[in-house]
Amino acid sequence: MRHRPAGEIGWARRVRTVADAVRFIDAVGYCLLFPTERLPLPSLYYVVAKRVPVTWDRYTEKIWRWKDELGRKRLAFYAKYFKARGTFISLEMLPHLLAMRESAAGPGEHETFYAAGRISKDACVIWQSLEKHGPLATLELRHASKMESKAGNARFKRALLELQCLLVVVHFGTEQETAAWTSGRFELTSRAFPRQVSEAHHIAAAAAHAAVAQKYLQWHPNAPPGLLARLFRWSRDEAAAACSCRAGGGVS
Q1: 236 lies in which domain range?
Q2: CA nearest neighbour of 185 among 125, 141, 149, 148
Q3: Other beta carbons within 10 Å of 236
């Protein structure tokens, strides 16, 4: 029997279509686009290709297209979240992760986040640009944020990553801006997924931690609290509390 990498799960059927991908993401709650040894999480690539390591092949091309379609059609949330890696979050789990991160932000809250030291000035500028102009492709967003130079591009990438790690900004499809690769489009989560942002306001932090932990433990029932603490950037006490009601059963 072929060895299954750490974090991957025993998914019975190979994922072949967008609908299959949505079912998988909904079942696991959150997963990576591509697997990585540093993160013990399931990945979409593994259940499509049923192998590692990742190579650029027909499976890679397929899920690369899917990440754009899933975001554009609002079938799943996609951003660089776990350690800046491409991450899918199901619509059911998104409110819990937003509540966990205390980032269910509405219009005009960029100044509040900046004043509290939660985002940089550059991230604040990008947030304002999206709020003013709506969803923008990468080059358009750099231009709107006045970060067109080489140094500005480095600042732009860092700031955009900040906003994705807070789940404030979501990947929202692609746009053909140049003759080369298509550019990612980005939108504020509050506009792309307003219902989930609204729901997050009614979820207490402890309840969000518990829901996120139980979803992980459903598929990895033997995971120790320390692993979840590292994965979700929790304190030991937060991880212990979140794991206190372990999910029963599940597939390992």
Answers
A1: 205-242
A2: 141
A3: 10
- Which residue is it, tokens 């299954």? 4
Sign of the dihedral defined by the CA atoms of residues 145, 147, 152, 153, in that order: positive
Question: Residue 186: exposed, middle, or buried by beta-carbon count in 10 A (0-12, 13-18, 19+)?
Answer: buried
pLDDT at 251 over 80: no
The sheet with strand 136-137 has its strands ordered as 136-137, 183-188, 169-175
Q: Are residues 212 and 180 in the same domain?
A: no
- Give yes or no: residues 111 and 177 share one domain: yes
Same domain, 125 and 187: yes
Q: Is residue 252 over pLDDT 60?
A: no
Number of structural domains, the chain?
3
33 part of a folded domain: yes
DSSP secondary structure letters along 14-65: ---SHHHHHHHHHHHSEEESS-BTTB---BHHHHHH--SS--SSHHHHHHHH
Q: What percent of the chain lies above the pLDDT cut of 90?
A: 80
Tell me whether residue 1 is in a domain: no
- 178: pLDDT strictly greater than 90: no
Closest CA to 95 of 85, 106, 103: 103
Render pLDDT for 40-79 as a digit per residue (tens, 0 to 9).
999 999 999 988 878 888 999 999 999 999 998 999 999 9
Q: Where are the alpha helices (DSSP H) in 166-250?
A: 189-192, 194-200, 205-219, 225-232, 236-242
pLDDT attached to residue 249: 41
CA–CA separation, 84 and 180 (whole Å): 24
